[in-house]
Task: inverse folding
């Protein structure tokens, strides 16, 4: 597996305070990678190190197999959490300036900008000043500026904060489109549920340390606890639940007598559901039988708890 | 175009296109000239008011001593008592009443003379009256000693000691002050430029912080490049403004002068090249002759050298101070938090100007002048005040000049390095009002 970015044993200290402690990551090429963790976990510091805004006290970063150096800046697109634009500058002029700073020629930058302005239907904004635009509009410009130089690696820090749902969706679609065309993407956020569905890989940071990383599906498999939600039609549901609870852990059961509908949560000792399903079917009609998959948030909380117990 | 070039260009255009910049650039010369005209006009009005003083003279003396001038005229009252004279002075709303009583000698009369006014009198008026009495008393004493009026006049003829340097160059009174003043002008220019454009640099950094664009930019360029680009771009805008000012102020002044019908020949006279003027000197009246000497002396100031060193001190001094301003801008979140940091910067500048005007003018090569022209935070201003006297013999010793520049360059490198460190950390810090202690910690990050 190729990795667009490898971070090895990164440590960064601000005075006595550790921002990152021996953090190692591997970001597979052409994947969507979620860097998750609460505020203050060290995500932004790590992203700044990748963007060569700050430098680690120890450890090193490889980009595409080479040690990170100044030329790589042109291959990375970064949308920081603290983002903004010059208020009194015109949209087009500003976008051109930022694109040129990334190393594009003026003509090339203009061509690509016109394409993107067309694509996001903001062609008539070219001569507007930023202060005339709404926040959501400005974020579109920021997105364009981030991706304009066609970077190999795109980094979004809290990408959807400040976007209204419609714009957030447009941007999400664009990001997926870029992924299809071969771009590797890092999402960093403390709102884990916002990126869970699109990340293939995640890493969890907590108090400057990485506590978990890997393929999201593997992690979920690892953390699943064989709990199932069940809904069925059955006469005398209460006694059935009692019967079940002698053998299994049953939680949040509810029985609607009038409709003869029963729902409950059940934990099995193993993945094998055949025996239970047969038993349920023999007693009534099963409406649904769904495995509860832990969310990234659940996993995070669980990991943090087990860590602190361990410590 | 290199990234630094792009940043410089953007900073320059952002500054130059700014409405307040455009307005200030074109309004300032008009305001300046307007102010000069207004002051001249007001002074004229003030002077044209004539004060009338009534004189009640009961003595045989002083009958011809009180001659009316433009600003004061005297009205002699006769055959009135002192009380009547007072009443009529009040009734006529005159400035005051000078009462000279009867007496046999000038001395007696003078001693018992009185000046009555409504309020405490203006100092210039009393001085004028005092002078009249004093002069008369002196004359009287000399007559007593047997000096005739004619001889007395001969004594009083003006005298001025002629001076020359050992090389035989004729010196002119006040020329050193004029030279220091020219140097002071350059120094003052540097101070103004640093304060105005350093402030612009600082505000521009704060703007990037508050608009949150800073991190977007430094993911493309080094913070140091951004800082230097900002400083250079802003100073180029400043130089543009200065160039426009000097040019337009010159034109405006000329227009206004010809409009008011003031004589501009004095300016033209001074502009005559020294070589051409020497031949015509014999024919000139004394006063013009002297003016020509001053002009010659001014032409002898090594202008090329002065401008050369002005550029050096200007560039180094400005870079040192504006990188400090940039670091301050990076350390704070808004302009109100800058006060505590700005004062210590302005202090050495003010000190340089005051030390310059009080100490360097009177003794350009004294220990204080030398010290301050070596100290890097004051040398750009103080050294320029010393330089019009020349370099080497009789001027600034070469070793001092070299040492001063060397110290300045060393400081420049040190300060820019420190400022860049603070800048690099500060631009990514939000929501904290930093203390000096905090800034010191940043240096180690």
Result:
């Amino acid at each position: 597996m190729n990795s667009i970015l490898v971070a090895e044993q990164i440590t960064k200290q601000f005075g006595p305070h550790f921002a990152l402690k021996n953090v190692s990551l591997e970001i597979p090429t052409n994947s969507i990678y979620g860097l998750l963790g609460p505020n203050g976990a060290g995500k932004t510091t790590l992203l700044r190190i990748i963007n060569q805004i700050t430098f680690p006290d120890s450890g090193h970063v490889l980009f595409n197999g080479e040690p990170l150096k100044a030329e790589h800046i042109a291959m990375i697109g970064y949308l920081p959490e603290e983002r903004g634009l010059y208020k009194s500058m015109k949209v087009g002029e500003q976008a051109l300036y930022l694109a040129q700073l990334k190393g594009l020629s003026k003509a090339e930058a203009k061509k690509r900008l016109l394409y993107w302005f067309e694509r996001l239907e903001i062609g008539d904004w070219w001569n507007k000043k930023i202060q005339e635009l709404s926040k959501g509009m400005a974020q579109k410009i920021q997105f364009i500026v981030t991706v304009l130089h066609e970077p190999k690696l795109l980094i979004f820090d809290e990408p959807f904060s400040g976007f209204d749902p419609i714009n957030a969706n447009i941007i999400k679609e664009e990001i997926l489109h870029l992924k299809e065309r071969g771009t590797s993407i890092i999402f960093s956020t403390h709102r884990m549920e916002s990126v869970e569905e699109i990340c293939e890989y995640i890493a969890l940071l907590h108090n400057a340390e990485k506590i978990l990383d890997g393929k999201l599906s593997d992690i979920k498999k690892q953390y699943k606890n064989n709990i199932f939600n069940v809904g069925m039609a059955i006469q005398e549901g209460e006694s059935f639940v009692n019967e079940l609870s002698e053998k299994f852990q049953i939680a949040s059961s509810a029985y609607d007598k009038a409709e003869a509908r029963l729902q409950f949560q059940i934990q099995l000792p193993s993945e094998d559901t055949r025996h239970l399903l047969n038993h349920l079917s023999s007693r009534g009609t099963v409406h649904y039988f769904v495995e509860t998959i832990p969310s990234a948030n659940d996993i995070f909380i669980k990991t943090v708890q087990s860590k602190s117990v361990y410590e | 175009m290199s990234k630094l070039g792009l940043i410089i260009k953007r900073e320059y255009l952002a500054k130059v296109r700014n409405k307040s910049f455009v307005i200030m650039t074109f309004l300032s010369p008009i305001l300046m000239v307007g102010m000069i005209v207004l002051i001249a006009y007001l002074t004229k009005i003030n002077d044209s008011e004539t004060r009338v003083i009534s004189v009640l003279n009961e003595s045989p003396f002083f009958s011809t001593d009180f001659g009316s001038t433009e600003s004061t005229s005297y009205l002699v009252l006769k055959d009135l008592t002192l009380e009547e004279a007072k009443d009529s002075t009040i009734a006529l709303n005159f400035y005051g009443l000078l009462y000279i009583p009867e007496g046999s000698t000038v001395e007696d009369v003078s001693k018992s003379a009185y000046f009555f006014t409504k309020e405490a009198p203006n100092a210039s008026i009393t001085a004028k009256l005092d002078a009249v009495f004093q002069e008369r008393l002196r004359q009287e004493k000399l007559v007593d000693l047997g000096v005739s009026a004619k001889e007395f006049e001969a004594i009083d003829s003006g005298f001025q000691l002629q001076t020359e340097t050992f090389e035989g160059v004729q010196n002119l009174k006040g020329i050193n002050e004029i030279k220091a003043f020219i140097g002071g002008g350059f120094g003052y220019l540097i101070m103004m430029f640093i304060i105005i454009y350093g402030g612009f640099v600082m505000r521009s950094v704060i703007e990037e912080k508050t608009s949150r664009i800073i991190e977007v930019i430094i993911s493309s360029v080094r913070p140091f490049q951004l800082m230097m680009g900002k400083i250079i771009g802003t100073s180029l805008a400043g130089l543009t403004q200065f160039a426009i000012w000097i040019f337009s102020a010159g034109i405006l002044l000329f227009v206004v002068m010809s409009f008011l019908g003031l004589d501009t020949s004095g300016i033209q006279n001074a502009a005559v090249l020294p070589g051409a003027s020497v031949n015509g000197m014999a024919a000139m009246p004394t006063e013009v002759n002297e003016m020509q000497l001053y002009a010659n002396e001014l032409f002898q100031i090594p202008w090329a050298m002065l401008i050369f060193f002005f550029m050096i001190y200007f560039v180094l001094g400005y870079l040192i101070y504006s990188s400090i301003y940039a670091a301050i801008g990076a350390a704070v979140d808004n302009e109100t938090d800058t006060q505590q940091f700005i004062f210590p910067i302005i202090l050495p500048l003010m000190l340089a100007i005051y030390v310059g005007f009080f100490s360097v003018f009177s003794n350009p090569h004294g220990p204080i002048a030398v010290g301050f022209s070596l100290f890097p935070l004051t040398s750009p201003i103080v050294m320029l005040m010393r330089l019009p006297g020349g370099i080497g013999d009789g001027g600034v010793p070469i070793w001092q000049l070299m040492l001063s520049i060397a110290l300045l360059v060393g400081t420049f490198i040190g300060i820019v390095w420190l400022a860049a460190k603070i800048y690099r950390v500060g631009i990514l810090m939000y929501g904290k009002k930093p203390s000096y202690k905090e800034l010191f910690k940043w240096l180690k990050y």
Summary: Chain B has 18 helices and four strands. The longest strand of chain B covers residues 51-57. Residues 223-260 of chain B form the longest helix (38 residues).
